[in-house]
Amino acid sequence: MSIGQAFLGLLESSPRHGYDLKRAYDERFGRTRPLPYGQVYATLSRLLKNGLVEVDGVEPGEGPERKRYAITSAGVTDVGRWLSQPEKPEPYLQSVLYTKVVLALLTDRPAADLLDTQTAEHLRLMRELTRRKAEGDLAEQLICDHALFHLEADLRWLELTAARLDELAREVRSHG
């Protein structure tokens, strides 16, 4: 996700200081990975330079002056355009998991063990997400559902690959 676009969307409702913007972002989008302050101010600096936000006010603080940022009309147009464009689906045609399986086969390592270990890790994470989903608000539930659906797809792939491992091993070795 574009942090800059998220900032523009958050600023559209009202001007905010950088720390308020960070808090709003972290509450809505960064629950498990809060933004570092440096990234907040680097992003605001870039948005300012590109004319998408402006300084709406400066207040003295206990240190550096506190700037309040507001979205510009160009920023409103930019975030509107971004929201109206579909995201490119990512098919993961060459995943890290596939690469590991092929390399395990090429180097005579136990690819089945790799698949079993990965399956166990996926199941562990799915249990954790299911717990978070049960305890969370609607936003957390939707975030967890998204992750769970992706993990379920990975699990189906892991099972299919395990079932075809002997065939894949023959094919990999014939090309290697």
Automatic annotation (TrEMBL):
Top-rank lineage group of the source organism: Bacteria
Organism: Phytohabitans rumicis
Record domain Transcription regulator PadR N-terminal: where: 8-76
A UniProt-annotated Pfam family: PadR
Record InterPro entries: Tscrpt_reg_PadR_N, WH-like_DNA-bd_sf, WH_DNA-bd_sf
Protein known as: PadR family transcriptional regulator
